Amino acid sequence: MSDPNCLFCKIVRGEIPAKKVYEDDEVLAFHDIRPVAPVHFLIIPKAHVATLYETGEAHRPALGKMLALAGELARQQGAADGFRSIINTGRVGLQEVYHVHMHVVGGPDPLGPMILRRK
Amino acid sequence: MSDPNCLFCKIVRGEIPAKKVYEDDEVLAFHDIRPVAPVHFLIIPKAHVATLYETGEAHRPALGKMLALAGELARQQGAADGFRSIINTGRVGLQEVYHVHMHVVGGPDPLGPMILRRK
């Protein structure tokens, strides 16, 4: 459920600080440390799962909550007129951290293309 | 639950054809008519909901299934090495059809920026 070496599991366990947006037993939302837009936070399941290829029936409740919460949290953070929610998976999807995470990206102006990899 | 004038509700009701990828009682997946990558399909909840701003607890099961299925369906469609799953919401997010839909976009090569609005 928790991976000792995973960056996001360390944030869940409180070993690495994060600017939290929302937290409950199943999910955690926190600001991206390198935002690409005025509103940019991540929502993750607390239980470790590396990619969307590994998710199944057991992960549905947390994943459903992540999507169902995205709009409310985006509005609270100042993105009341639209946003994008993006999960990058695997090599082709340019996934950076191998713990499933959804980017929520918004702002006052229409969003152009975004790659969400900053290496 | 179904909007008589919604394009995606018409696809759910079979009034407009679509190349289906997956279907059950809650969700439907079908190929995007204007693909931006070798693999590009949409996953939608069958019940009409305009945007992620309108989703709540009742929508979680279908939304969770959409995300938990994305990897398996992407692999079946030929995107076994990565993909992106993107939901565009509202004006700023450049949403085109006002029925929640998740783009699943993948292919053999790493994905660059993509705007997913083709007007």
Architecture overview:
- 2 copies of one chain form a homodimer.
- Chain A has 119 residues and is of the alpha+beta class.
- Chain A has a domain of 82 residues: HIT-like (HIT family, subunit A), CATH 3.30.428.
- In chain A, 19% of the residues lie in helices and 24% in strands.
- Chain A contains 2 helices and 5 strands.
- The relative contact order of chain A is 0.22.
- The interface between A and B is large, with 48 and 48 residues.
- Strand 4 of chain A pairs antiparallel with strand 4 of chain B, so a sheet runs across the interface.
Strand order of the largest sheet of chain A: 1-2-3-5-4
Q: What is the string of SSEs of chain A from the N terminus onward?
A: HEEEHEE
Oligomer: homodimer
| N- and C-termini, Cα separation of chain A | 28 Å
SS-derived structural category of chain A: alpha+beta
Instruction: Report the CATH architecture of the domain at 7-88 in chain A.
Output: 2-Layer Sandwich
Pair of chains with the largest interface and how many residues each contributes: A-B, 48 and 48 residues
Task: Provide a count of the helices of chain A.
Answer: 2
Percent strand of chain A equals 15-25%
Unreliable residue stretches of chain A: none
